[in-house]
Here is the input.
Amino acid sequence: MRMSVGLHARQSQVQKLAPRMIQSMEILQMPTLALQERIEQEMNENPLLEQVAGDPLSPDDGDDEAPSKDTRSEDEKELVVDNDHNNKDDFERLLNMDADSSSNFDDSFRRSANRMSEEADRRHDMMANAQSRPESLNDFLLHQLAELDIDDEVEQIAERIVSTLNASDGGYLRTPLADMLPPGHTKEDLAKAEEALAVVQSLEPTGIAARDLAECLILQLDPKNPHFDELQKLIRLHLNDLAENRLPQIAKKTGLSIEDIQELRMDLHLLNPKPGAAFLETYVPNVTPDIILEQDESGEYRVRLDDDRVPNLFISKYYRKRLQASDCTTEEREFIKQKINGAQWLIDSIEQRRSTLTKVAEAIVEHQKRFLDEGPEAIEPLKMQQIADKVGVHVTTVSRAVDDKWIQTPRGILPLRRFFVGGTQTEDGDDVAWDTIRLKLQELIDKEDKSKPFSDEALVEELQQAGMTVARRTVTKYRKKMGIPSSRQRRDWTLSS
Here is the structure.
């Protein structure tokens, strides 16, 4: 094979997104609270950006006024929302602005005292309103250990054991005791480790530091319970049979009646299989609706953006006048022009976000009227491509528009993505959403005879009688996703005995 080294010219066509267009897409994807933070950041970095008087966080700049539309230059024109042509001209103008802007200019500047003071106040408020960090599982156990009067060596090993426990794993001990001891440890050292483990397992929450589920449950049993021995025996020898609801096999092996086993199992259900999970830090998002859906007097739905907290921006009149001043240096003029381009792009991107988000929300609401009127069982199958075709934008634009956005409806605050669901067809050719099928599946299982619960094949037949043709593997898949046990596990043996 012959190899050669040389230079070759090749022509190719590639499509790249300009940085400003990427910024516009990012702004479309932002929820209202994130957009507020982005605007604050941009105002700190761009001295040409100002807020209309009366807006939240509006700086006091004396005689600066919002410019009237007829006094703006071509680059400063406000975005004109063209509902008939999807704002193509506006996006072309924004791309031209990006191409004309200088990428080599140093845009650093000194912030005003007012802005620095506002930023300090906001940070102080955030720190004052921040939630205190809850006590972790490890800290909780270490505090209990510190109160015990135990041997120092045992305490050191106990602390080592506590350090390996994880609340996300339920507080189980996954590391062998031998691995916590130095190489060449003796039987006496291992006995010390067992003693330390017993100390940790005596702490609250009960069942902590267990090496498996059976040990965790046994640690939680009350020795004063009159059925203590039977419960221990069930846990040690028949835990898998209990999980699979094989009560007749347990009765045959233990000599207990089905009713007695059922009562013992109810006692076991009171125990906690993951005692350490109570110390998990749960994150509850602070949901603020981006869109408000209201009904007018005639019952028609009206969509409006809840962006009152988003400030109305304009370009500083002082700097626009400064640009035309005779003593404005070339360096100063280039700086102002660059900042004007950045400010105008941000203003136009925010307006484009308002337009796109409103049109997408209106299209979604129009398609899902039955869901809003009648409830979850009436939701219609909907794909993002359908909304994209209706609005006249790319499907990725719809995806960004609905991402992390919430809408306040008469049925509560819902994520916009909640309205997009897959589906199948009935025997009559009508579309039916998977959510509707899941609701019907739950209804069938709730009403079934627990002495002879429906198998997955029987559920397929029941759904077909309701006009929903679904494969058995689909029923199995959604049953598991809904946390519904198999027919054998749902069977109540006390009813069939």
Confidence is low (pLDDT under 50) at residues 56-88, 90-113, 126-130. The chain has 21 helices and eight strands. Residues 137-279 form one domain.
